[in-house]
Amino acid sequence: MIFTVEINGQTVTARRGETILAILNRTGIRVPTLCHLSGFSPTGACRMCVVEVEGLTGLVTSCSHQVEEWMKIHTHSPRVMKARRTIVELLLANHPDDCLYCERSGNCELQDLATELNIKERRYRTRKPSIMIDRTCSSIERDPAKCILCGRCIRVCDEIIGMSAIEIIGRGSKSSIGTSYNKGLNTQACVKCGQCIMVCPTAALKEKNSYSAVIDALNNPNFFPVIQISPGVQGSIAEDLGIKGGRDIQNLLGAALRKMGFLQVFDTSASVDMMILGISQQLTQRVKDKEKMPLFNSCCPSWVKFIEEYKPELKKHLVISKSPMQIMGTWIKDHYAQRMNIAKEKIFSVAVMPCTSKKHEASIEEKDHQNIDAVLTTREMIRIIRLFGIDFNTLESENTELGFGVRGSAGRLSGIAGGESEAVIRTFFYQMTGQELSPVKINELRGLKNRKEARIKIGKSTYGFAAVSGLAAARQLLEEIESGKVEFQMVEVMACPFGCINGGGQRLGTDEKALKSRMKALYDADEEEMIKVAHRNPSIQEFIKMPEVIG
Hints:
Elements: E1 2-7, E2 10-15, H1 20-26, E3 50-53, E4 60-61, E5 72-74, H2 78-93, H3 109-116, E6 140-142, H4 152-160, E7 167-169, E8 176-178, H5 195-199, E9 205-207, H6 211-218, E10 224-229, H7 234-241, H8 249-260, E11 264-267, H9 269-288, E12 295-296, H10 301-310, H11 324-339, E13 347-353, H12 357-363, E14 374-377, H13 378-387, H14 419-433, E15 451-458, E16 461-469, H15 471-482, E17 490-494, H16 512-528, H17 540-544, H18 547-550
Parallel strand pairs: 1-5, 10-11, 10-13, 12-17, 13-14, 16-17
Antiparallel strand pairs: 1-2, 3-4, 3-5, 6-9, 7-8, 15-16
Helix pairs in contact: 7-13, 7-16, 9-11, 9-14
């Protein structure tokens, strides 16, 4: 049912069941929020989105209150503005005064609201308790002193990731957000994915910093610093630096990184192709041996951790291979060092990855085989680029390292949920038939959906492939597989919604428009490149000769 309501003296069309906030967003009227997340049911916890409705004695939360025909709504009346200002002032009363050197300074929603509401002094003062920063996790730090109890992290961890590693502790004015028994994230159900960081409005959650270690290595004459770049980070870096569409970000990054002092730059796409070839070979063998299916991917550390801790009976179904980051890292330390006649202890190997769980993956390597010395998130990489003052608008492109800079689009597709499966199908088809798949594009596995399925006829048989993102959705799919409701030959799982383009280490404030742009860039690269299948990439021939590199 469609009807009209009055908002700030203007008549606006509304639909039965819509919230006031939904109408305001649709009509271009911005109301601040701190707890609201698009796509989630509203809680009204932060009270920042309150509006005044004539006829009601109290202010109402626009995110949770449904519109009705009789309403006359005021979004910025003096009463509303005073309430919002008081809420922010009360939050600031308990907040640390470290904005000058806070990780999120300039990108903090609480700071933005204080500026917007013209808050210039502290009116309320409280005794701030001394709260320890939780540094137990290998990839995420939690600073409870900066938490504003918005609850976003709890909802994402529970509803999207399905782990419930963070929860409300205590009651009333003594409530806080933390972990069970305050034991720290490292002992909880946390899979290190970093999606909690992506929705945190302050610096209560952030990645464990590798920034300083990389800067020190670049200035240490005893080190030979090298770096590998994941295909999943390039679009995000381009957005932040304002690089115009159509420019070759991969080779621009290569030039920028050399200017910073990295002596060699590698493209992780080559080792992704190697992993894809390995997956295809394992899938082919399992089909021939009539082994129980499905085969699960193993490149997402958060997914692997989930399997190891909560579904150990499925470990035998995981792909037997190192991740692309580790494949490249092993090759750099064991073979590139030998080729360049450099002691591998001198090589400082850095990986730029779109997720925080790669920091965890690097930390659990055997100590005498530390192939990755530091993992940078996309956010950390952007900070370093800005530190060195590199102007991408005047930068000339440079090719990545010759031996592993041969372009192929199959590896790049792995940045999108479903892309790895699409790349595997192309090579699996060839290994089963001796012919190339045509066309190579598989629409069923494309787009921004948290679950995609494809049935591909190869020879006389039809094979099922599924790609799911978000571990909560993966749990549901596993239940369907175990009950016999569905059957697949391969299942790809990415912990983060929509895959690495939305990883926990990507730019903060990522919206659907940005995700579509990153996705399009990878699909466009697939259209333009000559080599679209992993088994035709000449770069991987050297990897094939080194089984110890692949794992």
